[in-house]
Design a protein that fits this description.
Layout lengths: L1 E3 L2 E2 L5 E5 L2 E5 L7 E9 L3 E11 L25 H17 L10 E2 L10 E7 L2 E5 L6 E3 L8 H8 L9 E7 L4 E7 L9 H5 L1 E7 L2 E5 L2 E6 L2 E6 L8 H13 L6 E5 L5 H7 L4 E6 L2 H13 L5 E5 L2 H4 L9 E4 L8 H10 L3 E6 L2 H11 L3 E9 L9 E8 L5
Parallel strand pairs: 4-6, 7-22, 12-13, 17-18, 17-20, 18-19, 20-21
Antiparallel strand pairs: 1-5, 2-3, 3-4, 5-6, 8-9, 8-11, 9-10, 11-12, 13-14, 15-16, 21-23, 22-23
Bound molecules: S-adenosylmethionine.
S-adenosylmethionine binds next to helix 5, strand 18 and helix 7.
Length: 402
């Protein structure tokens, strides 16, 4: 059937109406008319796939990716970069407005290089080939490159024959020095050709959580600081944007602040904030990340910061300090009930919420809004061309809250 795209949703999908039902269509832009194959028919909505574009948006351009038809990773590879930013801004503004939360002057900071920025990529291995499953299917798509990943990662993908294994998972991580860590999960034999080390700066190989070559970590330099990052510790995937967030964040910190940094990873933001604040305490659940954070404190000679190992929800009520600010940077599923309760009960004057998922950000703000109001909101194009947006929101305790 032919459908007219009337809008875009918060997942970057085009929206059309069919007999009163909404139809969500990947890779279709507003004002386009597209020929669609319906792939799912639910009670209240349909899902469709573009077969042909009958009337093109003036913003449409051909994709930079050879796999754009099968891969749903980049929703906006079919348009120019500036327009993708505009669509993402509109999607977030509308999403919040839907819950009566108007965002004043919400803008997304663009990326500096919108291809080749990702320092980590996770792929499936099947029959000695690298690739991924097409979204919501078990259809394996072999790939030879991913244009949004760093060039040194793509070079490793290209040389997969030098360490190929039959099946499993492969994660490739790179630092700004193009050093590479390979993380392999497989029950099959992995034999590694020495040529691999001649062509790539491999600094560590981890097979099923065991180090089989050199180290389990590398170092990253960001924000003028040095960070040790273990293979299984989170680290910001985009150098330019993560440095922008850190410098915006620092502007919001005062010298008398005592800050709680929840979900602190290797101390990426904690250390930066500690340069200005009186004291920072970070909490993180991954042991290697906390050990890295403690090492990073030492490497950068920063004294007024400490890190606790454990789940945020288990640790928060056991800390005696009175905090002036709390930074939360949770995983995609957002804050859990205990953490929301803690924030409502403790009435910390300022919450800085950094989020990679605007949906859970909005959900949590709805829960906090009886006591907190939004005083600042900004987006960052951490994941260019994909539907994802990083956000920093600042919430202030409402006057007279008791
Ligand atoms: C989005 S990352 C942010 C890390 C850090 N703020 C940074 O910028 O590098 C979320 C972090 O939360 C950690 N995490 C996930 N669930 C947690 C929990 N329940 N308690 C503590 N940390 C958790 C993850 O290991 C990860 O390091």
């Amino acid at each position: 059937m032919e459908l007219e795209i009337i809008d875009i949703d918060d997942l970057g999908r085009g929206l059309a109406k069919v007999d009163g039902k909404v139809c969500f269509i990947n890779k279709a832009l507003p004002n386009e008319i597209v020929k669609v194959k319906v792939t799912a028919d639910n009670k209240t909505y349909l899902e469709g796939k573009v077969l042909d574009v009958v009337k093109k948006s003036k913003e449409r351009k051909s994709s930079f990716c050879p796999y754009f038809k099968e891969c749903d990773g980049c929703s906006f590879d079919i348009t120019n970069y500036q327009y993708s930013i505009y669509l993402k801004e509109q999607a977030i503004i509308k999403m919040f407005l839907h819950d009566d939360i108007p965002l004043k002057n919400f803008k997304i900071v663009p990326n500096n290089e919108n291809l080749g920025f990702r320092n980590k990529i996770s792929l499936k291995v099947m029959d000695n080939k690298l690739g991924y499953y097409e979204e919501n299917t078990h259809h394996f798509v072999e790939i030879k490159k991913c244009p949004i990943a760093k060039e040194c990662i793509n070079k490793v993908i290209n040389d997969f024959n030098l360490f190929a294994f039959k099946s499993g998972n492969l994660t490739i991580r790179a630092n700004d020095n193009n050093e590479i860590i390979l993380i392999i999960n497989s029950n099959d034999k992995v034999s590694i050709d020495k040529e691999l080390f001649k062509h790539h700066k491999i600094v560590g190989i981890i097979l099923n959580d065991q180090v089989i070559y050199q180290d389990s970590f590398f170092y990253e330099r960001r924000n003028g600081l040095l960070y040790k990052v273990s293979y299984n510790a989170f680290f910001q995937i985009n150098k330019f944007i993560s440095e922008k967030i850190a410098s915006d964040l620092l502007e919001k910190i005062d010298k008398d602040d005592v800050i709680l940094d929840l979900y602190c990873g290797v101390g990426y933001f904690s250390l930066k904030m500690a340069l200005k604040a009186k004291e920072v305490i970070g909490i993180e659940v991954v042991k290697n990340a906390v050990l890295d954070a403690l090492k990073n404190k030492e490497l950068n000679h920063i004294e007024n910061v400490n890190f606790l190992l454990g789940k945020v929800e288990d640790k928060i009520n056991k800390i005696p300090q009175k905090f002036t600010k709390v930074l939360v940077d949770p995983p995609r599923n957002g804050l859990d009930k205990k953490t929301i309760k803690f924030l409502l009960n403790k009435k910390i004057p300022t919450i800085i919420y950094i989020s990679c998922n605007p949906k859970t950000l909005k959900r949590d703000i709805n829960k906090l809004k009886e006591k907190y109001e939004i005083i600042y909101s900004k987006g960052y194009d951490m994941f260019s061309y994909t539907k994802h947006v990083e956000c920093m929101f600042i919430l202030k305790l409402r006057c007279g809250t008791i």
